Amino acid sequence: MQARLDAQKVSPAAYxxxxxxxxxxxxxSKLEPALIELVKIRASQINGCAFxxxxxxxxxRAEGESEQRIYALSAWEExxxxxxxxxxxxxxxxxxxxxxxxxxxxxxxxxxxxSFSEEELVNxxxxxxxxxxxxxxxxxxxxxxxxYQPGKK
Length: 153
Hints:
67% of the residues lie in helices and 0% in strands. With 153 residues, it is mostly helical.
């Protein structure tokens, strides 16, 4: 597999704008880093983005996430490995990522309101939007998975 183009080189300002959204989520959103990585992995699984799955499973491991939880993420509803807050974030991730299949159902949104403050809910939604943007960029331009290492972004 070969990448079609390097978006960072072709349009650095656009690339930086998407990076800026990610930096906000990581540094200013006050969401737990582990939760953010779970969201990134789950959205990337749904979208079939091998590059982002590779990147964010490595990042999650580097931050101490267990192999068991990473492996079970695609079947999170059937496991006891995730907290209620994480389960709510994953349900929101699926609903927002698959928005065309039923928008964001009221019951999913209401669980979000109970598990997250309004600010956290906005920031979680931004995290989900951001990873979906990265997935679409990586898939469109065929970013090649495998070479990424944590700490070398």
